[in-house]
Every structure is written in C-alpha cells, then in structure tokens.
Design a protein that fits this description.
single chain; OB fold (Dihydrolipoamide Acetyltransferase, E2P); five-stranded mixed barrel; 2 helices
C-alpha cells in the first residue's frame, strides 16, 4: 500500500512575494527626491551676482559704438565690443547712446534704450 502525505501544502514552503523589491525602490526614490530637490531649487534660482557667461551680461549697461537698429550695429559692454540689434523693431540707437542689454542671442546683444 502506498503512503500519501497528509498535508502536501506544508512541504511546498511559503508562497513567493514578487512585490518585495518594490518597497526599497519606493523608499530610495522618495529619499533621493527629498535630498536632491533643495539642491536643484538653489541652482535654478541663482542670484544675479553668481551668474556667469552671457547670462551675467543681461541687465548691464552698454554704449552704442555704431548705429544700432533691427539689422545690427556695435556696442561696448564692460570694455568688450559686441555686435548688437535693437530689441524693439522700430527703434534706432545712435552712437554714444547708453542702453541696457536685454538679452544675448548667440554673439549678438539685444539692447533697449
């Protein structure tokens, strides 16, 4: 006569839980966002004193060297000569006029009186 195991479910062991790796992943993601978000916000809202490159030139004063209109001209920004265009299409700026740099597009300054 053959013998049958009275409780076959006991011999299988506990059922596998496939969601176990999700818990550490979620915890790690939340911790990373909580740690990095303040650092990212500080870099996004950088004060004007810490700006570098062309971003530092926006808002500075310049002097027109050659007539500036929508097609072009030359200005002096902080001792350097830059190509420039008028920010407003109908504006014409004569040499000697003090202007403000509104924006830098490539190597061209957009200026406004």
């Amino acid at each position: 006569m053959s013998t049958v195991c009275p409780r076959p479910s006991v011999s299988r062991g506990p059922p596998e839980r496939h969601y176990d790796p999700i818990v550490p992943f979620i915890a790690g993601s939340v911790a990373t966002v909580a740690f990095l978000r303040p650092i990212a916000r500080r870099h996004l809202h950088m004060p004007a004193a810490l700006r570098t490159g062309t971003a530092a030139l926006e808002g500075t004063k310049a002097v027109v060297l050659q007539r500036v209109d929508v097609n072009g001209g030359r200005v002096r920004i902080g001792g350097e000569e830059w190509s420039a265009r008028a920010y407003m299409e109908d504006q014409v700026l004569e040499p000697g006029t003090r202007v403000e740099v509104v924006k830098i597009e490539g190597a061209t300054a957009l200026v406004y009186e």
